Structures are given as structure tokens and as C-alpha cells.
Backbone:
């Protein structure tokens, strides 16, 4: 039987942290992706430029560098802001930049860029006639988006969202480097203390494998549901 | 040079010749680590991808298990298992392997090579199985045996289809290599972390290194675009 030397509950808490981190980052990434894709497809040149800059920068910089910049830089930024607010307006404003928030913000920002590309492709895959028809029925822009574009876009976006989610899940391991006690961090500490690396890292690897395998099945099921009624070409 | 830049360069005490050299050494380490692991990964990925397409489950099964395990778990954990694990193998400290693996560079190289090899195997497999059937039939009609067919028809044609996905993998590997800094390797990220902790200057240290990574990424993107144009030159429209 697997003997975790008393680290079992801590590892379990760590696993919960990992899952929370992954889900919150996903929500942020999806939101940013929708905003990014809408800006890229909008006629507004400024919005287009900002979105293109955002996706280019993110794709050029490693996740870990981004995370270190947000974690260490974020705290310095808060300190400067807090000094300024106190000096100028005597407003007492301060908060500790913790690794969890930095992790969610960084991973959300990074995958927001990838989601932007996914959503952009998916929006372009919706037939133009659908939008014209909605307009002809007198739908407002918001209604066209919510009732016509969004539901049809989702079907095209699902495979891309699924891939991004799988990569995102594995990226959460990096947050252990900036000191969040997720399951990787707990395993690392336990492995060092007990001098048993295989003993602690292999169960953690197995949890990740279980999460990715489970997500794969779930995404397959979602895809099947989303494509009900679509005749597949052979 | 505009005055304000000259002034800033005069006053800054972070970007001195010493720290620039530190970044340079880090860059050398990053490039070596990424380049070697990509080469090793690619060399092993080609035969593994061929095995992976075999109809015999006893041949393709083990390769599938390997790629599934390495693609389903984070690279950081693979690195930790190899880095901390190698020292725990009974008796290794008496053999010559210990001389090699006590340096953090080599466990990291092993972890990165195994990881990228798994992804590359799946990329090449995908390209192989999507070879148009007519090409293989034609090769058979010419009397080519399996080996010649592989060498002259299937692999060159698969290479063209794989290059796009492979370029993504190369960039992904460059970015993943940043985690080498957690096992005490002074790569680009490691250099930035040292400089951050010496000056407590997160913006300078990390934004500068981010720009270096971006430059490397764009060089790679450009090189792969050239390669793609070269490989797909037969598809160029006539007259251009």
C-alpha cells in the first residue's frame, strides 16, 4: 500500500489548490479570449492593435518568466502604488501579492492569448449568412452575438479550448516555483525531507495523468454533444 | 544617441558589463540545452513514430504508453523525478555515470529530450498516417520495398506535413526550458533570477530577459518560415 509518511493530507490539499488554480485561470483565460477575439475581429484599429500586441508578446515569452515578473514585479508595483496613494491622498491601500493570485493572473493572461486565437478562428468559421439572417430579423448586435454567433462559434472552438485546457493544467505545476503550496510543492518538500523522490513525485504525476485523461474523456463527450445534428463528411 | 538614453545608461547600475555577461552565459546555456534536447528528441522520434504506426499492438503499444505518460504529466515533475531520482539509484554514485549526472545540466537534458521526443513522436506519427494512400500505392507499383518506400516516399512527404507543428514544438521547448533554472542551472531565466535577487529590480531583470526570449522566438519563427517555404516550394503558384 502507498505509504505517504504523513504527507497524505497535505498532498490532498495541494491537489485541491492545483484544481482551483486551474479552474480560475480557465475562467480568466476564456474571458480574455472572448474579449481578445472580439477586438481582433472588430473594425477598431486601436483595439485590433492592442489585441495583436498582446498575443504576440505572450507567444514570445516563457510562462515562467511571465510568472516571475508578475509575482516579484507585482509586489513592487503594489508597494509603489501604495506609497504614492498615501503620499498624495493619504489613502491607506496595501495588499500582499500572493502566489495564488499571481498564478491565476499569469496563467489566465497566457492562455487568454491562446484562447484569443481559438475564438478568432471559431468566429470566422460561423457562416456569414447566419449573421445576415439575424440582422434581417432585426436582432441587435448583442442579440446576434448571444443567440447566433456565440452558440455556433462554441462548436468550432471546443477542440481548441480542450487542447488549451490540457496544456493549462500542466502549466499549473509552475506555480510551485513561486512558492504556492500546490501538490508539486508539497511533493518536493516531502521528497527532499525523506530523500525519496520517486515515492512522492510519481503519485503526483499520476494525479496529473488522471486529470488530463479525465479531461480528455470529458472533452470528447462535450464535442459529441456540441456536434449533435452535424453530418460529418467522411 | 538621444540624451535621455545616454543619461539613463550612465546612471543605471544594473546593466553593467558584468550582468550583460551573466545574461550572455545564460543565453549560451539555454541555447545549448534546447538545441541538444531537440536534436536528441528528433533522432529518436523518427524510429519511434514508425513503430507507433505499426499494426502490431505489441510494437505500437509501448511507444503509445511512453508518449502518453510524457505528454500527460508536467515537464517540471519529469525534471524533478530525473534530477532528484538519479542520485537515489542504488550504486550509481560508484559508477562513471555519476560523474556525468551530478552536473544539473545532464539530468535536465535527459528530461527535456525525453519530453520533446514524446511530443515529436506524436507529430511525426500524425504526418505519417495522413500520407495520401495513392503515394504509397504508386511506390508499391514501382516495386519499392518497405524500407525504400519509407525512405523515399513516406518520410519526406511526412516531413512537409510535420514542419508546421514541429516549429510550434520547438518554440514550446524554448519556453519550457526556463524551468531549468529551478535545478540550479544558470540559463537565461536563472541569470534573470540572480540579477533580480542581487538588485531587487524585478522589472529590469525579467523584462530584459523576456525581450531576449522574444528575440530568440522570432528568429526561430523566421527560420521555420524559410524552411517551410523551401519544403513546399513545389506548391508555389506558377510564375511567382
Residues:
Amino acid at each position: 500500500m502507498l505509504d505517504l509518511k504523513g504527507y497524505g493530507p497535505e498532498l490532498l490539499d495541494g491537489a485541491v489548490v492545483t484544481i482551483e488554480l486551474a479552474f480560475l485561470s480557465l475562467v480568466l483565460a476564456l474571458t480574455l479570449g472572448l474579449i481578445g477575439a472580439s477586438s481582433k475581429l472588430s473594425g477598431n484599429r486601436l483595439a485590433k492593435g492592442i489585441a495583436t500586441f498582446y498575443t504576440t508578446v505572450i507567444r514570445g515569452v516563457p510562462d515562467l518568466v511571465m510568472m516571475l515578473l508578475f509575482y516579484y514585479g507585482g509586489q513592487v508595483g503594489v508597494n509603489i502604488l501604495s506609497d504614492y496613494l498615501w503620499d498624495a491622498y493619504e489613502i491607506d491601500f496595501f495588499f500582499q501579492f500572493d502566489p495564488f493570485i499571481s498564478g491565476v493572473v499569469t496563467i489566465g493572461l497566457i492562455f487568454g492569448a491562446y484562447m484569443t486565437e481559438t475564438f478568432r478562428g471559431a468566429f470566422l468559421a460561423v457562416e456569414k449568412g447566419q449573421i445576415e439572417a439575424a440582422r434581417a430579423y432585426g436582432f441587435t448586435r448583442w442579440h446576434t452575438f448571444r443567440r447566433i454567433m456565440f452558440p455556433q462559434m462554441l462548436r468550432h472552438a471546443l477542440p481548441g479550448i480542450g487542447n488549451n485546457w490540457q496544456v493549462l493544467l500542466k502549466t499549473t505545476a509552475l506555480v510551485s516555483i513561486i512558492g504556492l503550496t500546490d501538490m508539486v510543492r508539497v511533493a518536493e518538500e516531502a521528497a527532499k525531507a525523506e530523500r525519496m523522490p520517486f515515492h512522492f513525485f510519481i503519485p503526483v504525476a499520476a494525479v496529473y495523468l488522471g486529470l488530463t485523461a479525465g479531461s480528455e474523456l470529458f472533452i470528447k463527450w462535450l464535442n459529441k454533444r456540441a456536434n449533435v445534428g452535424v453530418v460529418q463528411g467522411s | 544617441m538621444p540624451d535621455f538614453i545616454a543619461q539613463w545608461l550612465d546612471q543605471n547600475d544594473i546593466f553593467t558589463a558584468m550582468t550583460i555577461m551573466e545574461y550572455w552565459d545564460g543565453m549560451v546555456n539555454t541555447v545549448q540545452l534546447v538545441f541538444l534536447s531537440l536534436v536528441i528528441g528528433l533522432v529518436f522520434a523518427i524510429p519511434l513514430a514508425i513503430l507507433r504506426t505499426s499494426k502490431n499492438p505489441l510494437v505500437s503499444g509501448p511507444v503509445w504508453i511512453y508518449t502518453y505518460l510524457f505528454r500527460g504529466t508536467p515537464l517540471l515533475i519529469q525534471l524533478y523525478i530525473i534530477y532528484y531520482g538519479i542520485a537515489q539509484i542504488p550504486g550509481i554514485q560508484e559508477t562513471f555515470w555519476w560523474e556525468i549526472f551530478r552536473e544539473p545540466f545532464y539530468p535536465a537534458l535527459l528530461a527535456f529530450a525525453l519530453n520533446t521526443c514524446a511530443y515529436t513522436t506524436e507529430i511525426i506519427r500524425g504526418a505519417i498516417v495522413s500520407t495520401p494512400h495513392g503515394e504509397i500505392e504508386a511506390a508499391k507499383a514501382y516495386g519499392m520495398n518497405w524500407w525504400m518506400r519509407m525512405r523515399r516516399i513516406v518520410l519526406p512527404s511526412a516531413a512537409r506535413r510535420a514542419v508546421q507543428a514541429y516549429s510550434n514544438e520547438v518554440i514550446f521547448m524554448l519556453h519550457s526550458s526556463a524551468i531549468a533554472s529551478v535545478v540550479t542551472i544558470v540559463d537565461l531565466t536563472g541569470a534573470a533570477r540572480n540579477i533580480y535577487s542581487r538588485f531587487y529590480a524585478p522589472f529590469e531583470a525579467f523584462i530584459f530577459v523576456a525581450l531576449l526570449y522574444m528575440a530568440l522566438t522570432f528568429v526561430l519563427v523566421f527560420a521555420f518560415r524559410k524552411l517551410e517555404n523551401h519544403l513546399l516550394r513545389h506548391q508555389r503558384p506558377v510564375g511567382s
Observations:
- Chain B has one domain: 22-232.
- Chain B is about 75% helix and 0% strand.
